[in-house]
Design goal:
Number of helices: 5
Helix content: 10-25%
Oligomer: single chain
CATH topology of the largest domain: Nucleoside Triphosphate Pyrophosphohydrolase
Order of helices and strands: EEEHEEEHHEEEEEEHEEEH
Largest sheet: 6 strands, mixed
Length: 271
């Protein structure tokens, strides 16, 4: 970690969707690396600020196919988050939140190299976290896409889990989807569940949220009750969906995701 004005400054190093860290002592608790260590081992590293003067945070990235020096490894960010939340490595919510923010900004900067209005190469705004077009003055801010994810419970206290076509074989999770323009979060919950599995729901309650930069989502977790209908997967996104009891669960998402958090609340009878 670096220090700036007495504050610790985390610098997370990324390659593609992975955190890059030393193999030895890759910290039980990883809070980032000092810029000096990164510069010494990675001449190609690109640095930039992702925080504010009040809350400094920096990130760096290296080219996707660049070989890592001996003694370094790349750990997929999703896997790291799962390890953190499962307790395989010590949990630090501040470190996890900082890594998620840094990764989100890394992707946004890569995708906002050019102005969306006139096509000129963007620069960084000097006064805030934004991209500034030197030709037309257009500012672009990090994109955040709200998405709902919902645990549906029926009268037998079973939970609805669905297999998305993008999942690994045997993996089931909760119904989720992006909020559309002009739509409330509750409306998105109702629509997604009806569209994807043909069920009507009631008693929609907000539970928790989680930044999920894969690529730029803010996941908003809800719980609700089934109000009727027969399960019928849409066949496009969802290939299978079933009611599961607590003692007959399939493969479910790992720790570190809001979907697992919601499922765990139901398993603990806390919903």
């Amino acid at each position: 970690m670096d220090k700036e004005g007495g504050r610790q400054v985390d610098t997370f190093l990324f390659q593609d969707d992975s955190l890059v860290m030393p193999e030895e002592g890759a910290p039980i608790l990883f809070r980032g690396l000092s810029p000096e260590i990164i510069k010494k081992n990675f001449v190609s590293a690109v640095f930039f600020a992702t925080g504010s003067p009040e809350d400094p945070l920096t990130a760096a990235y290296i080219p996707p196919k660049e070989p890592l020096p001996q003694g370094w490894k790349a750990l997929p960010l999703r896997h790291w988050l799962s390890q953190v939340s499962a307790g395989t490595i010590m949990y630090d919510p501040l470190a996890a939140g900082s890594a998620l923010r840094a990764f989100h900004i890394v992707q946004w900067r890569a995708e906002s190299r050019f102005c969306g209005s006139c096509g000129t190469a963007n620069a960084d705004a000097p006064d805030e976290l934004a991209r500034l077009c030197p030709a037309c003055g257009r500012r672009e801010y990090p994109r955040i896409s709200p998405a709902v994810i919902t645990i549906v419970i029926n009268d037998e206290d079973k939970a609805l889990l669905a297999h998305n076509n993008k999942f690994a074989d045997g993996m089931y999770s909760l119904v989720a989807g992006f909020t559309e323009a002009g739509e409330s979060l509750e409306g998105a919950v109702e629509r997604e569940i009806l569209e994807e599995v043909n069920l009507k729901v009631t008693g929609i309650r907000y539970i928790a949220s989680q930044p999920w930069p894969f690529p730029n989502s803010l996941m908003l977790g809800f719980a609700c009750r089934c109000a009727g209908g027969e399960i019928r997967p849409d066949g496009r996104e969802i290939s299978d969906a079933k009611w599961f009891s607590r003692d007959s669960l399939p493969l479910i998402p790992g720790f570190g995701s809001v979907s697992r958090y919601l499922i765990n609340l139901w398993m603990e009878n806390s919903l």
